[in-house]
User: What shape does this take?
Amino acid sequence: MSEDATSPTQPQQDRSRRAILSAGIGMAIVDMQGRWVEVNPAFERMFGHHAADLIGRASAEFVHPEDIDAVRAAFERVLKGETPALDAQHRYLHRTGAIVWAQANVAMMHDDAGLPNYLIVHLRDISSEREAGQALQALNQTLQQRLAEGAAALQAMSQQQEAFAYGVSHDLRAPLRAIDSFAALLDSKARGLLDDAGRDYLARIRAAAARMGELIDALLDLSRAGRSELKFEPVDLSLLAGWAGAELQDAEPGRAAEIDVSPGLVASGDERQLKLMLTQLLDNAWKFSRTRDRVRIEVRGERDGDRLHVRIRDHGAGFDMRYADKLFEPFQRLHGADEGGGNGIGLAIAHRIVERHGGRIHAESEPGQGSTFHLDLPAATPADPEFHPDEPAE
Amino acid sequence: MMHKEILLVEDNPDDVELTRIAFTQAKIANKLVVARDGAEALDYLFARGAFADRDPAHLPSIVLLDLNLPKVDGREVLQAIRGNELTRSLPVVVLTTSVEPFDVEASYALGVNSYIQKPVDFEHFVWAVQQVGLYWLVLNHPRDGDD
Assistant: This one.
């Protein structure tokens, strides 16, 4: 290595020196032995030293003891030419002993012969940025803790809801069974002692008990629809709709009904829950067709990219679109019991299931013209092992 | 075999009475022994406590078990029955109000023979109890030596 290459005299001749001296951020020139050769006023302010106290001293003296190995290694890499420039954050020491966090940019300069000559060091004081960053981190931690607390509270609430639903299932049913059963026994034992009014009262008691039993079942379904774990798999909605329709026909074998389902409507979702959803929608269509000679329900649909659109159309009573927003709210009924109105929970169950599948449901109707329920659900993807492309959706 | 008892583990007196009526209507003549909680059921089966003078080898033909019971609940009773050499193969039918999937799964995992939800409606309830009696007391052939 020539005398020239290590001489600090050459940079002093550089025009850029003036630029360095007047720069707003800390700048310094370091020789190939790691000593300060020149520092600018901003650098002096950063470290609380006069240039005269710094020149000729080892730059390592001003590095925080815990960071010295890291800084040495970094300089080493630049000196060996392993990296042309360096960008790193380290701690340095102010004259008073205070820690100065600085972002260091180090670049190797070469002489005319292309040999390493000296290093230019930029040091930017980032202490306040780091403080802000730490404050942000602390805030983030607090936030995450709050979130975790919120999630735990939600979990506790969901468990409470579960315990409540369980209690409803068990504790409300048992007295209901007693009411219905002893009314039935009274009816059979004391039938001869009662007049028509008395027997009518017993029949009313039993009918009310039956309705309450159905209501409890529906509430449990609603609660389960909101909390049960969903197992996503390809689900043949055509098959499930046909099944739900057959169940309705079984429950009312004397009713003339035509349920026409297009094949191949395969969604991605939880089979048990989607069956429950279709049962509710078909039950709704069936109930509101009671004024018609025959129940007619069509289930159609098509795949649209990764979505499956399904339409369930009936030709029943229909409803006034002004009340469409109430349709999916629990306990909201648009029809009285004599018009086929149920417990007001069925469509709320269907709605909750569709929402939990990341889908959407809406209905359109006109009084006397029947209703169409539109479903938008995730479609089964061709990658799913049970996807059958040989059964194209209509 | 027809004279062996039916052990009904049930804390609700209404359900006890209804089960009794259902068996009478079904012409099932076996004596109905009622335990009001799980602890009493286990004392009876293992001839302990108030039942210390009973012959523990003389087992009921079937146990009808409610799940939600005071003191020792139905799951624990089931566990104790399956865990004892003497009662290991005793037919146990869960007869409960709950149809929570969790209860059904847990009961089968613990080795229950059947799981029946008690219907709310009286006729259905009688029908269910009759089916249980018909199957376990008439059709089912117990293991040799169990009788």
